[in-house]
Amino acid sequence: MRRSGRFARLSTMPCAKLFEMLPTWKRSISFRNTSCTEYRYNENVGINSMLTGPSLPETPRAEKNGFGSDPGALTHQLTTEGQNEASHGLDTKSALEIARIINHEDAKVAAAVRKALPEIAQVIDMVARSLRAGGRLIYVGAGSSGRIAALDASECPPSYSTAPGQVQYIMAGGPKALASAVEVNEDSEELGQRDVARRRPTRKDVIVGISASGCTPYVVAAVAYARARGAQTAAVTCNCGSPLSAAADVTVVADVGPEVISGSTRMKAGTAQKMILNMITTGALTRLGLVYDNLMVNVQMQNSKLVERGIHVLMSACHVDRATAVETIRSAGRSVPIALVMLKAKVDKPEAVRRLAKSDGNVRLAIEDDVLEL
């Protein structure tokens, strides 16, 4: 049967070629994640010679393309492409049975993410340091992973008043791919390199590649390019020992197992990726002091709901009545952080502004008139 689309290319090209982009010392490498199966890559053999873990058919080593005599070897070794025993016969189930099966599988996602918390914390601190130094967080993704990245990046300015350029996303196929499938672009290494090169990554920046398979050529190429230019890099994936893991400085693996619908990584894998990106941006921006206690103090009050949220934040944090909160926000130029510092530190607006500038926007340190150390 003839393969088409992204799997035709995955089965014949990407991983071996992708590794050619990596430094020579990485072309013969063994790596392990504590929660994953171990893999080894050698430039003469290809990806995914299984060493330990669940038994899978061993890939023959003599074929030129690196995947042995079976052109689908790479896809077959991805846990996210496997068949889920719990959902066999799904097409014969009732609506309630289908919902129960999906819900049962979704319950496994948080546990998979929990195993990756140490690596997630590393990325949080990496991003916090970068943003504080004037750098950027730039997500790179394709398909569902890219759309999840775009969602996370776009929600930072209204939630935390970040500058539009601080948290960015690069999507295979461009913005039009957010609403329409342009999945063929994810097979292009050249486009991945070109798109990230246009952002001119530097040592100040953090580039995070998101790919459920960990083999998406567009994403791997973009991360490898950014790392070669000195940027700090991280990978978010749901498969162990992938090319994306080898291309990045830090790897976050959420091993969620096979999907209810085989290969439908918008399901458990997508949920895990959304949870992880939530943690990265929320954690980094909280570390920078853009959150006070657990309150969204940097909310942009651009509609009636958000105005009410800002008023409630001030009432809750400062234990004042509504009239005082409204008047202080008005005198602070509709800035909740300035109003909060004014009330908590008992200072006027110019002094609150000075303190926030000194603390790089860290509200708690502005109240204490201190500086941030990370």
Features of the shown structure:
alpha/beta, 8 strands, 374 residues, globular, Helicase, Ruva Protein, domain 3, disordered N terminus, Rossmann fold, 3 domains, 3-stranded antiparallel beta sheet, 5-stranded parallel beta sheet, single chain
What do you see in this structure?
This protein is an alpha/beta fold and 374 residues long. The chain is built from 17 helices and eight strands. The protein has helices at residues 5-12, 14-20, 73-77, 95-106, 109-114, 117-132, 143-154, 156-160, 189-197, 217-228, 243-247, 268-287, 304-318, 322-331, 336-345, 349-358, 363-368, and strands spanning 28-31, 39-42, 46-50, 137-141, 167-171, 206-210, 232-237, 250-253. Strands 5-4-6-7-8 form a five-stranded parallel beta sheet, sandwiched between helices. A three-stranded antiparallel beta sheet has the order 1-2-3, with no helix packed on it.
- Tell me, briefly, the overall form: globular
Main sheet overview = 5 strands, parallel
Gross CATH architecture of the largest domain? 3-Layer(aba) Sandwich
Strand order across the largest sheet: 5-4-6-7-8
Enter the CATH topology name of the largest domain: Rossmann fold
Average pLDDT number: 82
CATH class membership of the largest domain? Alpha Beta
- Terminal CA distance: 56 Å
Secondary structure class reads alpha/beta
- Residue runs with pLDDT of under 50 for 5 or more positions: 1-19, 21-35, 37-71
Helix content: 40-55%
